[in-house]
Description:
Blueprint lengths: L1 E5 L8 H17 L4 E6 L14 E5 L7 H13 L4 E4 L12 E4 L4 H4 L10 H21 L3 E3 L2 H11 L6 E3 L13 H8 L5 E5 L8 H14 L5 E5 L4 H13 L4 E3 L5 H10 L2 E4 L8 H7 L5 E4 L4 H5 L4 E3 L4 H13 L1 H15 L4 H15 L1
Parallel strand pairs: 1-2, 1-4, 2-3, 4-5, 5-6, 6-7, 8-9, 8-11, 9-10, 11-12, 12-13
Helix pairs in contact: 1-14, 7-12, 12-13
Amino acid sequence: MKIGIDGRMLGPKQGGLGRYIQQLIIHLEKIDNNNEYVIFLRKENWNDYQPVNLKFKKVLADISWYGWEEQILFPLIINQEKIDLMHFPHWNVPVLYNKNFVVTIHDLLLIHFPTRRASTLGPLLYWFKNTMFRFSLNHATKMTKKIITISEFSKQDIIKTLKINPKKVVVTYLSPTKETSSEAPFSLYKKYSINKPYWLYVGVAYPHKNLNTLIDAWEIFSQQNNFSYQLVLAGKKNYFYNQIEKYINNKKIKDVIITDFIPDTELSELYRNASLYVFPSLYEGFGLPPLEAMQYDLPVISSDQTCLPEILGDAAQYFDAKNPHSIVAAADLVIKDNNARKKLILNGQKRLQKYSWNNTASKTLQIYMEVL
Length: 372
């Protein structure tokens, strides 16, 4: 059988979704020597994937997502490959594609947080984009053979919100990846102006990530601790990080560093040498960065929202994401109570054993076989 995978978002620059696609394909290569695979890529990520299994091949589909070309031209490219089963690892399934497919829906963020604060578009374009999202999502969930999602929280959310038959939705957990650093810590510190112990956050700055509240908490903590720490926000600078930077500057808050995009080989050193990892998100389908932090024996403090208690279990110190003082209390406990810190680190190592990309690929392959 010939299986197609939409890899146009493959790679770390696309965040958790890009890592999911990348790791799924890498591990499918390791376990499946029976089926043929076609991986559709754009020019910008063409070199990010090199097949090592002769059953896998790349096909150029240099089409951006969410536009008219995706709806009309992408199905034509797929059809040329005579695919038996197509896997769309995101909800953006072309509405003109009605052949055999499965879809991964990571979360329903755009339904639960339909705010223009999360977009740079004007009112009319935002309304049009949101309308098209709902139309595409409805098509994807109704026409797909199976919906793959990444947590029990997201499964129940999809079933309840979209009124989907529970038998149609399958959970395949994600897993963190660990990179080896090519940089010495001191060179990174100089590069990013890190000269104190630091809290670390890794990710985007969309409104649901709740970084404004994190900044408010940081201001309280910093003043209480005589400005002896720094807060490092590791994420690619864009409109949303610019808004956070304005917020920081308007409040004249000190010791906050926004790094811009960091390659994985540098990111590992930031994880390894931080004092704690903080994750203030209001909504997640899974939440990979806290697990990545645990790989480096970094204690995690986290919001108690949505899927996070399910994914992190007893390996995080939880806080009320809407209360800056709650964030400060969690940080104080981890930094000042050595026993609590050691317990979180130990629980983190145990928690990591629950997740494996090989298991994710194996369960996904099983889904493919069920619907072929």
